[in-house]
Design brief:
The protein is mainly alpha-helical. It is globular, with a radius of gyration of 20 Å.
């Protein structure tokens, strides 16, 4: 069964990578060039992505914190982690509360953004809260069966979830993850421009902002430095499929040029950074 897990996880990553490699070779042969970067649009998307990522991660830690407190443990809440004192076997079960919380919240934002589309930064934030809530929660189910020391893995162990059931849940979560990305990046399209088999434009319109947004997340995570691994891994998990789905999209809608830097989300992001490091970094005890 462990081998089946490896095949599933490797297959998830390698399928879009094969297509990306094909596109790179094809574009090199045809001497295709990258389109000009609209830095206003890139920075706006990066800011909203970074803001949504940090809010979702904090939401996860908040419910891990509340879960420990609910069973009588002394819990600590930080800006990028949580801790507790005391012993209770139910703590393993509560380790799954964070993933459950962000999946539930992400689902709400998912359906809300589908029924209330718009170009304001607030509506785009809700959109990215839905994307990140689901894409940060589902991979935890993907790996829970093979990595029992993870949060959801500990919850699975407490509940007595067997290897076959865990693998079926991993398979289902993988398909759901691809489905969510398809709705947002293939069928619906996340950016104003939805490319039609235009690989390099998809890189510029989507992957570049997400990469920049991932870097912006770093100050919210440190210290210690190993905290930056999670946002990088999240980027690695979703970026290949986003690029694949955006490239094969059949939509032929052209982009609307955004030449204005949105100041309000920048201020909100800076305010959140101050709250994380001045209020939450020392820790809240309950």
């Amino acid at each position: 069964m462990e081998q089946a897990y490896h095949i599933l996880l490797i297959g998830y990553l390698i399928v879009p990578m094969i297509y990306i490699t094909y596109c790179l070779l094809k574009d090199k042969k045809e001497k295709a060039t990258f389109p000009k970067v609209n830095w206003y649009q890139t920075i706006n998307t990066a800011i909203v992505y970074a803001l949504s990522f940090n809010l979702i991660f904090f939401w996860q830690e908040l419910w891990l914190f509340l879960g420990k407190h609910a069973i009588g443990l002394t819990a600590y809440l930080y800006h990028n982690n949580h801790g507790w004192e005391g012993q209770d076997e139910r703590a393993a079960l509560m380790q799954g509360s964070g993933a459950l919380a962000i999946l539930f919240f992400g689902t709400i934002c998912f359906f809300y953004s589908r029924s209330n589309p718009g170009n304001s930064w607030r509506k785009k934030l809700v959109l990215w809260l839905g994307i990140n809530g689901l894409t940060m929660g589902l991979p935890q189910i993907q790996t829970a069966g093979i990595a029992r020391d993870t949060d959801v893995g500990q919850a699975f162990a407490y509940l007595g979830v067997g290897s076959i059931t865990a693998f079926l849940l991993a398979l289902m979560s993988t398909l759901l993850l691809i489905g969510v990305l398809w709705v947002f990046f293939g069928k619906k399209g996340i950016s104003d421009f939805r490319p039609k088999r235009d690989f390099k434009r998809a890189v510029v319109e989507i992957i570049l902002p997400l990469a920049l947004g991932t870097v912006i997340i770093f100050p919210f995570r440190i210290f210690p430095w190993h905290q930056i691994v999670y946002p990088v891994m999240h980027f690695v998990i979703i970026a290949p499929w986003i690029l694949f789905l955006q490239t094969v999209s059949k939509s032929n809608r052209v982009s609307s040029e955004n030449r204005t830097l949105q100041i309000v989300p920048v201020c909100v992001l800076l305010g959140l950074l101050l709250v994380f490091h001045l209020v939450l970094s020392p820790g809240i005890v309950w």
